[in-house]
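User: Hi! I have a protein structure encoded as tokens and I'd like to know what sequence might fold into it. I'm fairly new to this, so please keep things simple.
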């Protein structure tokens, strides 16, 4: 007698045969200390990444052959310049799979904003394709492929608060991290990450790792003690109007504010949804031409 599959098994089979929809969250750097520079030009860092509920959406379908990428929501190239395209191409090359994929990216995360949208989209592409073809790449191989696409991409496979070291690929998941609300203000401005890192004067200390561990080992985590970004002074010096965003967030009740990554996005940390909503709505009226997002921190993915 045939055994009928459970609803979960049926759903998995439908995914394997046809298509999958997957979310790609943005992230915030609550801490970014540059600890050195390697001979290959990459900077080593110590950072705290937190995923947030600002998500792109990818719809991935199997096709007989070829690779087709489409973008909506925000304007992006749809060829090899797009990290989604490159991630999919790398997946097929690595696995030797002869099929193809049609990928539609619904873009919500601002481009070149310091929120990691491109890296997250690349990770979601790898995860989605791997699921559709019944996991041809085990976890470690998927992580290696992710790293070949960018230093932040492995974090988006993890999608949970973590300390990142090395060039961002050495991840230590945080077992417990408080859930906060964040108001993110993203001006219409593109900041080159390579330029920002190139302007930094390294402050190399052997105390960096110890300091951050002390913060997390304390009886009560104090977010203002954690907030640090070695790139912030570089970007804010070139674009001083960003300082007014930080000042406004603090004046509206944030108990900490910081630039994320190389910018230009600035975020404020709030201990309640109500306070975050009030601040966010005020900032939307103040800067109607900026993207203002009111989002919750994520413990595990979208």
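Assistant: Happy to help. Inverse folding works backwards from shape to sequence: for each of the 302 positions I chose a residue that suits the local structure. Here it is:
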């Amino acid at each position: 007698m045939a055994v009928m599959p459970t609803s979960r098994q049926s759903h998995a089979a439908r995914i394997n045969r046809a298509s999958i929809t997957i979310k790609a969250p943005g992230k915030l750097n609550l801490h970014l200390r540059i600890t050195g520079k390697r001979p290959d030009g990459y900077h080593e860092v110590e950072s705290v990444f937190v995923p947030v509920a600002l998500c792109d959406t990818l719809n991935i379908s199997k096709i007989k052959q070829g690779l087709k990428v489409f973008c909506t929501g925000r304007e992006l190239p749809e060829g090899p310049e797009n990290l989604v395209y490159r991630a999919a191409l790398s997946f097929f090359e690595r696995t030797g799979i002869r099929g193809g994929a049609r990928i539609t990216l619904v873009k919500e995360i601002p481009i070149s904003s310091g929120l990691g949208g491109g890296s997250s989209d690349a990770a979601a592409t790898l995860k989605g394709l791997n699921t559709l073809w019944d996991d041809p790449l085990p976890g470690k191989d998927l992580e290696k492929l992710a790293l070949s696409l960018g230093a932040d991409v492995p974090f988006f496979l993890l999608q949970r608060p973590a300390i990142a070291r090395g060039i961002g690929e050495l991840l230590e998941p945080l077992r417990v991290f408080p859930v906060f609300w964040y108001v993110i203000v993203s001006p219409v401005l593109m900041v080159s990450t390579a330029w920002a890192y190139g302007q930094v004067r390294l402050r190399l200390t052997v105390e960096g790792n110890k300091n951050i561990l002390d913060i997390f080992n304390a009886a009560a985590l104090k977010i203002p003690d954690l907030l640090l970004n070695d790139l912030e002074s570089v970007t804010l010096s070139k674009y001083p109007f960003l300082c007014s965003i930080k000042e406004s967030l603090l004046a509206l009740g944030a108990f900490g504010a910081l630039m994320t990554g190389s910018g230009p996005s600035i975020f404020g940390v709030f201990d309640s949804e109500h306070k975050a909503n009030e601040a966010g709505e005020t900032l939307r009226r103040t800067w109607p031409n900026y993207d203002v997002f009111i989002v919750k921190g994520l413990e595990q993915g979208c």
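A useful reference point when you look it over: The radius of gyration is 20 Å. Feel free to ask if any position seems puzzling.
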